[in-house]
Amino acid sequence: MKKVLLVMVVLGSFGLLACSTAEPETIIVEKEVVKEVIKEVPVEVETVKEVTKEVVVEKEVLVEKETLNWVFPGTYNPGHFGRSNQEKANLMVYQATEGGLEIEYKQFGEIGLKGGEGLTLIRDGVYPMFEIIPAYVAGDRPEMNLYYLMGLAFDMDQIYQVSDGTVGMRDEVYAAYGGSRLPIYGDFSFAPQGLFTKDEIKNIDDLQGVKVRHYSTLGADLIRRVGMDPQIIAWAEVYTALQRGVVDAAITTPSSGTKAGFGEVTNYLTVIPQGGGLMDAIFNIDALNALPSDYQAAIEEAGKVSSDGIKAQWESEASGNGPAKVALDGNLQHWVMDDELVNEFVTRTAPGFDEWAKASGPNARKWLDKALEILGRK
How far is CA 215 from each of CA 64, 138, 222, 237, 245, rounded to the nearest angstrom? Predict the structure, then answer.
């Protein structure tokens, strides 16, 4: 018996088409999938055998890139080279990620912060990154005050030795709060601290009873030993405190003070035998790991550029006639402590090292011993 071959092509909901040849015609319409169904119907057989194949039509879809916005709280006011370098790094990241990641630097005071909240805000995921100033977070981790012991580190070389030699200890602290210091993003060590005063200081007697702003309880204790009357005041409030006579003097790095306008409310500047501490930008580890690898690479590259730039500036400020130039630029008269006055600072504050370590717990003793070992004093 002859067999009759009937071929039909079904196209989605467009209905049933019949043709008299065995070669099916495929019509591609504007749909994601086009199906061909070939039915062979022998005359003597009532069952139908179906062979189905799919032709997928690929479409190119253009999706606009979404920008991820990060707020980056930090210590610097507009105009300071530290902030300028960080903002340049932020722009590098934005360009390298083709607008995918935008980091916006905000000084603590601009967003209602004081800086001491950094570790807990990173732990809680409130911010993806944060500039950590050890003195500010010492309320949570008192051992971080090591870097502000007056008389411990006298110059940039010693400051670097202590900072680099204890970096593993800081990393342990950051990890406990879900943070990471790596990749480096503008990290640096500050230059030695400056003392801004309204009145001229000639000897130790001129410092007795002078109300001076400091930024930590440790610094306050050491300054008290010299005979001054320390007041712990947040950075954002120092200018006003000097202006209104709440304090007569302030301690901070020379360029930080001049950029904040201290030359308008004080008259003299000198460098004291105290390291200025350091800054570590830390990341919430979950936020960092959630970024694509190319974004992380962009952060690493830009952060190193910023760090190198800031370090060079601090080193320039601390060496040679750097302090005098900073004072001149800030409309201040620069003076240099003589050896007698330096010795007064060192001998009066040295007993405070052990007392600080005892009061701050076992970690502080460990950190102090490490620093003294690094400097060859143990």
Answer: 47, 10, 12, 11, 17
Asked whether residue 38 falls in the same domain as residue 85, the answer is no
Taking only the tens place, the pLDDT of each residue in 77-95 is: 898 899 999 999 999 999 9
Determine contact, residues 76/188, Cβ cutoff 8 Å: no
Q: What is the pLDDT of residue 346?
A: 86
Q: Roughly what angle, to the nearest 10 degrees, separates helices 339-349 and 217-226?
A: 120
In a domain, 63, yes or no: no
> Residue 162 sits in a domain of what CATH number?
3.40.190.170
pLDDT, tens digit, for every residue of 333-357? Answer: 999 999 999 999 989 998 999 999 9
Domain tally for the chain? 2
pLDDT value at position 219? 83
Residues 6+ apart with CB under 8 A from 191: 156, 253, 254, 255, 276, 314, 315, 317, 318, 322
Q: Is 289 left (phi over 0), alpha (psi -120 to 50) or beta?
A: alpha
Instruction: Write out residues in the chain with pLDDT < 50, as ranges.
Output: 1-41, 43-52, 57
pTM > 0.85? no
pLDDT for position 16: 34
